Amino acid sequence: MAEAAYVTIAEDYARRIRNGTLPGDAQLPSHAELAERHGVSRSVIRQAIQLLSNQRLVRTVPRRGTFVVGRSPVAKVEPLPLDDDVDEIRSVAHPIRRAQLAGNLITHYQLRIAELSGIRQTAIEDAHDHGMSIADIGERLGLSNGHIG
Fold first, then answer.
1. Are 143 and 149 in contact (CB under 8 A)?
2. Measured at the alpha carbon of residue 45, what is the angle toward residues 41 and 19, in degrees to the nearest 5?
3. pTM above 0.85, yes or no
4. Tens digits of per-residue pLDDT, 33-91?
5. Number of other CB atoms surrounding residue 111 within 10 Å
6. Burial class (CB in 10 A: 0-12, 13-18, 19+), 59
7. What does the radius of gyration of the chain's CA atoms come to, in whole angstroms?
8. Spatial separation of the C-alpha atoms in residues 133 and 21, rounded to whole Å
9. CA separation for the pair 50, 68 (Å, rounded)
10. Phi and psi based region of residue 122 (left: phi greater than 0; alpha: psi -120 to 50; beta: remaining)
11. How far apart are CA 21 and CA 13, in angstroms?
């Protein structure tokens, strides 16, 4: 199954930031420019920027734009393998390392949740495009009064 466009775009920019192609404090193009460049809607770009923001790779300054976060010389923290669990993080003695590992795991799950939310929304839109009413979709999803929120 192909990844959602916003995930692919975010991964591309994350790679560029991490390998230094996009240096710290560089300004990204506007949402409109990015949307045109990637052939997607602005909402897809907003989702991609949110993923990058969740990873603390970019920051958005209202009415100024989105900027690459300057990379500090602090040691890079690698995420734990997926098989490791919360108990292993709890057992880490150094509090800063424990906080970094917990943050990495949180970011991983936030990205997965964002991806799943996109998949869910696309599935709802597909069902609606195939003739199901919003009320029917909501009912089948077990949502109260057939409302999709």
1. yes
2. 140
3. no
4. 999 999 999 999 999 999 998 888 999 888 889 999 875 444 344 554 544 557 777 88
5. 17
6. middle
7. 19
8. 46
9. 13
10. alpha
11. 9
The size of the chain, in residues, is 149
Model pLDDT, residue 83: 45
Q: Which residues pair with 68 in a beta bridge?
A: 58
The beta-strand segments (E) located in the chain are: 58-61, 65-68
Q: Which letter does DSSP use for residue 145 in this model?
A: G
**For tokens 């991964």, what's the residue?**
11
Q: Which amino acid, residue 22? A: L
Distance CA 45, CA 35 (A): 6
Distance CA 109, CA 90 (A): 17
Contacts of 4 (CB under 8 A, 6+ apart): 47, 115, 118, 119, 122
Kindly give, in sequence order, each residue whose CB lies less than 8 Å from that of residue 88, ignoring residues fewer than 6 positions away.
80
Is pLDDT at 120 greater than 70 in this prediction? yes
Which tokens hold the place of 144? 């109260």
Contact 146, 134 (CB under 8 A): yes
